[in-house]
């Protein structure tokens, strides 16, 4: 009787056997959203199931992150994770409804969004080292622009300040457009910005690029040295986007998703498509390497946040 019952039980369906959802914590149209849509389209092919993008912006990615953290951990809900949601927010915000380390498993770091150190054209400095010398000669007299307190761009500038020893005052703005306008008007003299928004202004000669914050030079600005090359070895700062699932997602489903994402990341046209946006598609990492990457990111930014006593409500 038992043998018959076992024989009659239906076979377990292969994963995935229905559509998946990729929750994106940003509004449609930006670089992160574009990445998520192409990624979803390619994953649909790899997994032979639709992967539907659901935009859920708000509260600096925390609304979407909370939703995914509380979703069924069955492999059918994915999250476009970033260093904002997985690293910075848990350290910055006093009230947060999820625990990034406990509630999520980051499966893959898909892309880094490099940062560029840009300056007003009137500052008598053609290199980062020269800017640091100018700033040190006038401590507290120069200003740097950012897009808000606790934003990755502000934290990257504070990290740069600590590594170079320069004293420049922080002027926060509500968005990259007013911040860059202040830089062009010489109300501020320095900004660390995402490459995608500053690149057109650099190309038009409206601001100048002093250095990039990546480990290597960028193809879109091949003549601009890295911060490390500019006399500050070991410096690296970037925002990143990846794919995460709820922590309790079974290992088999998580592994199938990680492998599918890795196959997409290896596609040459996928890598090339985002180069113009300044997104650097990463080489696939295994789970241990991904966890190490995220942990190093937490350590790097945790030191900056603690040193500057940055807390957000």
UniProtKB/TrEMBL annotation:
It comes from the Bacteria. Pfam families: TctC. Signal peptide: none annotated. Coiled coil: none annotated. SUPFAM superfamilies: Periplasmic binding protein-like II. InterPro entries: BUG, Bug_dom1. Belongs to the UPF0065 (bug) family. This is Tripartite tricarboxylate transporter substrate binding protein.
